[in-house]
Design the sequence.
């Protein structure tokens, strides 16, 4: 059984609180265990590492290095704090052990390139993704196969800076990385981003905190309307364990870099608000 380490800025947060149950329900569950966890510091008013580990029946690691050394694969979490990912992941990326880094992967394209370069230097398998890429409606592949001329997404969350990645990930997974132009409208509260591709193809991202995640797409021959998206976290968890088992990510590196670039450019224009824990 392979051992997984959780590394987090502060461990008592939504993703770390839910991943153990999702991992336990995955097809490869019998092949993995979450063996230990480590946090850089506790979040005020939430459980300490010791309290969280006692509740989850997971061993607390005395240091980041010991968490990495005692395990076969590593989850670097901190989903609300991508600026912390480099320092939390740096040692793990030097070990050759598969590393999953939660979304947003990095706060800039330059930082994202640096992380991939470090992983490449040590031949460390590296994966990152928004869960929305793994919605049932997208992993079937029907939308991609239709080669849509226009794609529209909606989505919310507590801040554009933290949650816009979900829409960018969906768009890039369908239309690819070769954007020719970006146009922006609105602000951090209500934002629209238009992505223009070759051949007149377009994607429109609409953000407001109360919006549900949705997707519509149209080509000359077909139209897809998905007012809701389903099972993305469960499907992401399956993909993470497949990655840990094989060392091969289904998310192309160039798409992760493109998403980091899109998010950085958009935040600078319309979403430059602080993330929160």
Sequence:
């Amino acid at each position: 059984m392979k051992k997984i380490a959780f590394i987090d800025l502060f461990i008592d947060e939504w993703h770390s609180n839910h991943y153990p149950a999702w991992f336990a329900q995955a097809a490869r569950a019998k092949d993995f265990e979450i063996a230990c966890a480590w946090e850089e510091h506790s979040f005020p008013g939430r459980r300490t590492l010791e309290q969280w580990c006692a509740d989850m029946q997971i061993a607390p690691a005395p240091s980041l290095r010991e968490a990495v050394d005692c395990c076969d694969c590593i989850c670097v979490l901190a989903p609300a704090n991508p600026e912390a990912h480099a320092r939390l992941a740096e040692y793990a990326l030097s070990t050759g052990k598969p590393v999953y880094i939660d979304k947003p992967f990095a706060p800039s394209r330059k930082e994202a390139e640096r992380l991939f370069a470090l992983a490449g230097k040590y031949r460390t398998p590296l994966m990152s993704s928004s869960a929305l890429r793994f919605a049932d409606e997208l992993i079937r592949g029907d939308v991609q196969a239709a080669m849509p001329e226009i794609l529209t997404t909606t989505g919310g969350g507590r801040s554009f800076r933290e949650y816009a990645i979900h829409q960018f990930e969906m768009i890039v997974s369908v239309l690819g990385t070769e954007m020719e132009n970006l146009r922006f409208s609105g602000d951090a509260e209500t934002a629209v981003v238009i992505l223009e591709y070759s051949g007149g193809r377009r994607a429109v991202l609409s953000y407001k905190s109360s919006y549900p995640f949705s997707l519509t797409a149209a080509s000359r021959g077909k139209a897809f309307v998905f007012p809701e998206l389903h099972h993305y976290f469960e499907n992401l968890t399956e993909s993470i364990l497949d990655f840990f088992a094989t060392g091969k990510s289904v998310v192309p590196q160039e798409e992760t870099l493109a998403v980091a670039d899109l998010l950085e450019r958009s935040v600078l224009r319309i979403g430059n608000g602080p993330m929160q824990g």
